Amino acid sequence: MTDIESPTATRQPLRFHHGGVSVPDLEAAIAWYRDMLGFAVERRFDIPRARAKAVFLERDGLRMEMFEVEGAAPLPEDRRHPHADLRTHGNKHVAFAIGDYDGFLAALKAKGAEIVLTVGESFGRAFFVRDCAGNVVEFVED
Question: In angstroms, rounded to a whole number, what is the distance separating the alpha carbons of residues 40 and 63?
Fold first, then answer.
């Protein structure tokens, strides 16, 4: 039996590496994630087979991968709204845990972030913003 066939092969520790987002303007997305959330460019690279420019952004050990792909289709309108987006299969959004919910929300509002939805459910408080490309990002009180 090889390591791949072994039941313990899939039991090794997993760590989150990154979330990926396609955007129409890579430089605008880099600026938005830098100015709104404090991310910095970790590295830039090209993906020639996909006709894409890409970047890894990093903050506090978290990474976001951004792609600008030549000829990509725009984000459909229903993907810009958290409740409507749930009706489409696939990845929904990336979420970040925050400690000071009220302070973080106030800071993003002061920077002009588009707050899409706030929730206060039995499982906790969270809010969603749209980035400069319309992608939804969630912040969860931790």
Answer: 9
Flag whether pLDDT at 111 surpasses 90: yes
Q: Which domains does the chain have, with CATH numbers?
A: 1-72 (3.10.180.10), 74-142 (3.10.180.10)
Angle at 49 between CA 46 and CA 50, to 5 degrees: 75
For the chain, percent of residues with pLDDT exceeding 90: 82
Query: Torsions phi, psi of 30, nearest 5?
Result: -60, -45
pLDDT at 38 over 90: yes
Give the pTM: 0.87
Which backbone phi and psi does 10 adopt, to 5 degrees? -90, 0
**C-alpha distance from residue 88 to each of 7, 20, 84 (Å):** 33, 18, 8
* Chain Cα centroid distance, residue 120: 21
The phi and psi torsions of 69 (rounded to 5 degrees) equal: -110, 130
pLDDT of residue 6: 64
Using the structure block, give the residue that is written with the tokens 């929730």.
119
Question: In the beta sheet, which residues pair with residue 6?
Answer: none
DSSP state of 74: P
